[in-house]
Each structure stands twice: as structure tokens, then as C-alpha cells.
Input
Amino acid sequence: MNRRRLILATALALPAMPALAQSSSGLLNLFAGTGAGANAFVERVTIASNFEIDSSRTLLEKSTHPQIRDYANRMIADHTAILAELRALPDAATRQPAALDERAQEKLIRLRSFEGDELNRWYVQMQVDGHKETVEIFEAYAANGEVPRLKEFAQRHLPSMRAHLAAAEALQAPRPPQ
Output
């Protein structure tokens, strides 16, 4: 990676660090209470799923790596289904944001600036980081959610979010030379 891109990537990543460092206990507090927790859960799941879909489409446009392309196709299918199910829940339909938040938009712009192996590495790292956060969100709401249908949704989809994280981490693992 050239020096300019490294500086740009570092500068863009710094504002996101506090959010990435948020602990599960912080999420538990966020999802406790009256109504705000359900709103926050739906918003975060919607933004995360839309980011997974958009970043995976970007990857598919530019990458030829077969395993990473398979993973991207799985993310599009799974997160599209999650969003459709979430939209069908009366407790969530009106709470879904229409667009990515600024942080997700910046990450998507950054991803689009890469090519080849650099694109693959950044995509996989974004998937690992994003799914770690998503697993925490689902765990917190599955444990402390106040709206029964949303809590059941979180409990039902938590295993697939963990599987997405494990699959992304496996893509990071070094491969023996072929």
C-alpha cells in the first residue's frame, strides 16, 4: 500500500475507534429501557446489513478471488433475507433507516478505492470488524431486548452472525502456497 493511501486509511479509521471499542456491557445498557433499545437495535442491524450488501457488491464488481467472492455472495443473500424479515416485523418496519450512516458510507468509499489483493484484504478485514460488532449487538439484544419479537429475531439470527464472523476470520488465515 502506498504511503498516501495508508495515511488516508488511518485518518478515516481513527474516528471509528471509539465505536469499535464499545463493550458488550455498553450495548446491554443501550438496549435496556423503554423503546430506545428497540430503535437502536433495528437501526444498527439495518445499517450493518445494508453495509454488508453494498460492500459485497463492490467486492463482486472488482475481485476475482473465488473464496472471497463466494463469501460476498453469501453475505448478500443472508443479509437481504435478514432485512426482509426485519421489515416484516411490525415492531421494526417504521424504525429502519433509509440510508447508511456516515461511518458506513466512509468505509464503503474507502473500500471502493482499492484494487486486487489490497481490495480483498480490506474487504475481509471490514467483514471481520463488522461482524464482531454485529455479534455483540445481537448478543446484547438477545439477552436484554425489551420487544419480544425483536428479541426472538436476535436469538434466531445470532448463530448465523457468529458463522459469518468465523467464515470471515477463516478468509484471513494464511494459506499454504499452491
Confidence is low (pLDDT under 50) at residues 1-25. The longest helix spans residues 116-144.
